[in-house]
Design brief:
Blueprint: H1 3-12, H2 19-30, H3 37-51, H4 60-71, H5 75-78, E1 82-86, E2 93-95, E3 100-104, H6 105-110, H7 115-130, H8 141-158, H9 166-177, H10 189-203
Parallel strand pairs: 1-3
Antiparallel strand pairs: 2-3
Helix pairs in contact: 2-3, 4-7, 7-8, 7-9, 8-10, 9-10
Length: 205
């Protein structure tokens, strides 16, 4: 019996093992020597399945959009990208320097599962990786967000999605919550809705 099979069996019997420990065992079992965040979430999903807790959403549409975006990129870039989907009401997504893109289901639900908006958001995070924003200290955080927004929409369109639908997301957020994102690191919601709409007037899809 493999290490993973043993762990699964013990978990079924009520052995409480943390996701971190299971991930470490997964790495050892696979002979990997580097940390891969995607394994953490994959192991979590296995745990939920073993516990009998049904995952409340279908990950396949999200993964399909991500794959389509990858295919729109050069292989040397797309091969660096990994996707983590976290079931949480948090409305957020972010990119890590190692190419890992994390998206919370809260933001997907806020977008009403619109594939164009989803592609633009994932494209935005991919853009941070492509433009090496984690290593670029010359641009301000807000400048980086502008570039990621525009490249994200462009990538979404290239992959065959209606990336400009993301304008609806920001308009809806402003109408519903007001200017909730007003920080020194991100453009505020009103500004985002306006400049993305202006950009999309020329690339409307």
């Amino acid at each position: 019996m493999s290490i993973i099979s043993t762990v699964k069996e013990k978990f079924k019997r009520g052995c409480k093992l943390s996701v971190q420990i299971l991930t470490l065992i997964s790495l050892l079992n696979l002979g990997l020597v580097i940390y891969q965040p995607s394994l953490l979430i994959d192991t979590y999903e296995v745990l939920m399945e073993l516990k009998g807790d049904s995952l409340n959403f279908d990950r396949r549409p999200i993964r399909q959009v991500f794959r389509d975006l990858q295919q729109a990129l050069p292989v040397d870039i797309s091969s660096q990208l990994r996707l983590i989907i976290v079931e949480s009401p948090i409305s957020n997504a972010y990119a890590s320097a190692d190419g890992t893109i994390t998206i919370y289901t809260g933001i997907v639900e806020e977008m009403n599962w619109d594939s164009g908006q989803l592609a633009a958001v994932l494209g935005h995070e991919i853009a941070h990786v492509v433009l090496k924003h984690h290593y670029n200290g010359l641009q301000s955080s807000i400048e980086k967000e502008y570039y990621a927004d525009l490249l994200g929409i462009t990538l979404a369109i290239k992959a065959g999605y209606k990336g400009c639908n993301i304008v609806k997301f920001w308009v809806r957020r402003v109408n519903k919550q007001g200017d909730v994102l007003n920080t020194t690191t991100h453009p505020n919601s009103v500004t985002r809705a306006v400049y993305l709409d202006q950009f999309c007037q020329n690339v409307r899809r």
